[in-house]
Design a protein that fits this description.
Elements (H helix, E strand, L loop, with lengths): L10 H27 L9 H4 L7
Length: about 55
Amino acid sequence: MNRPIEARADFGNLAERLTRRAEALAEAHAESRRLAAQGNETRWRRAALVWPLFAKG
C-alpha cells in the first residue's frame, strides 16, 4: 500500500505573493539608496527599510 505522495499547489497565488515580496524589497532598496545619496543616516532606524518584509502595512 505504498502510494506516492501527492502535492497540489496554487502557483498563481505563489507567484502573486512572491511578486508582492519582490516589490516590497525593491521599494525599500530604492528608498534606502535615495536616503544614502542624501547622506541621511536615519535609514538605519527605519524598520520598513531595515526589515521590509516584516513591516506592518
